[in-house]
Amino acid sequence: MHQSCVIVVGAQWGDEGKGKVVDLLASHFQWIARYQGGHNAGHTVVIGDHRFVLQLIPCGILRPNAKAVIGNGVVIDPLALTKEVATLESAGISVAGRLFISTRAHVILPYHRLIETAAENAPGRVKIGTTSRGIGPAYEDKMGRRGLRVQDLFDPPSLRAHIQNAVGEKNAIARALYQSEPNAAREFNAEIIYADYLALGEKIRPYVTDTALLLNHAADRGEAILLEGAQGALLDIDHGTYPFVTSSSTTAGGACIGTGLAPTRIRAAIGVSKAYCTRVGGGPFPTEIEGPLADALRQRGNEFGSVTGRPRRVGWFDVPLIRYAAMLNGLDSLILTKLDVLDELPTIPVCVDLHPNGTPRYEERPGWLTSTVGMTDYNQLPPRAREYLEFLAAKIQLDIGMISTGPERDQTIVVASSRLQEILHDVTPASHAAR
Questions:
Q1: Is 15 a catalytic residue?
Q2: Cα 237 from chain centroid?
Q3: Domain range for 293
Q4: Which of 22, 56, 69, 218 has the most crowded CB, counting CB atoms within 10 A?
Q5: 3-state class of 155 per DSSP?
Q6: Is the Cβ–Cβ distance between 232 and 12 less than 8 Å?
Q7: 106: annotated active-site residue
Q8: Burial code of 177-190, b = ≥16 C-beta within 10 A, e = fewer?
Q9: Which helix (H) or strand (E) element contains residue 110?
Q10: How confident is the model over 104-128, as pLDDT tens digits?
């Protein structure tokens, strides 16, 4: 069986710059498929004067020859999706005939958002730091076998019955969660939701199909498929920093579950990491820093959520974390983003391991105090920047195949003779042959 599929995963807590990476890699692939998450994560791509923030549609849609798939592992807010389609089309990005949505993907409904907001703010609840977009409750309904799937939007009697049954239960849950502030509780009307979602279903109907069949047939033809997730490995529901995690499988294994592609289809897994580290929301963060230096890195790196605008927590590169992510995902290569954010630092601490009490042990690396913004040749980098990269590669025991030196497409270094280059060489002929 031809192994034509490559997985891209975040190797930290998300926000690693996967949007730009997927956009860059998409030129080597005919299909880009999203396998988990919802519209709580934004992937940002900068092309000239245009800045695209995609929340559900894979970044590959920005490449005119690529087709984009929203897999069965994604939870979809149809209203957010139709707005995203409209935004792309208004920017001149053709979507018709290039976007495919799984019939099996589950649907986010209005009461999911209300319940998530209430649960996050309930007295005594450990605050996770969710975006309150209904992602978690939608996954809860999916796993509880009471969810609504995209295909159900096209069966009016079934859709009405599902919403009528659900609304009574969800209104009772909302009242219970909001008992400390009863005026905040909101009653949902089943008929209004039914009418809204019936209409939204008709808007997305042209894109809906059996994407598992679609992708497997493409793989049978030897066409190259890039699989992208929404968050990072340390937010995985099973293997992340539980309970401060997301509601789905963000690791490479989730790509097979969320698309219907077998593990034997997978050619490689590529990780994405910043040259330092960030996370959003609550939970452990061993290398976190605070104060003026943290503020400076946050501003220089524009470390604010693409979707929510929330400031991200910042810290130093964490070697044990990346090695753990590499093990979980079977990473073949690592792409490092935002190297240029470190340009002004005289020294750069790197966490190389943890003390028995869990605190980081750092090694200080000399900074380069020279701008790397926009560099595209590895040999152009300041010697100390190259030394930093080589130090990281040796510590994580992983090939660094690409380096981002700015937010735009062309502000990127592809490392010659890297493992990443070899992987792209293996898949590119098949994808280009059909173009």
A1: yes
A2: 14
A3: 5-100+210-430
A4: 69
A5: coil
A6: yes
A7: no
A8: bbeeeeeeeeebeb
A9: helix 110-121
A10: 999 999 989 887 776 666 555 666 6
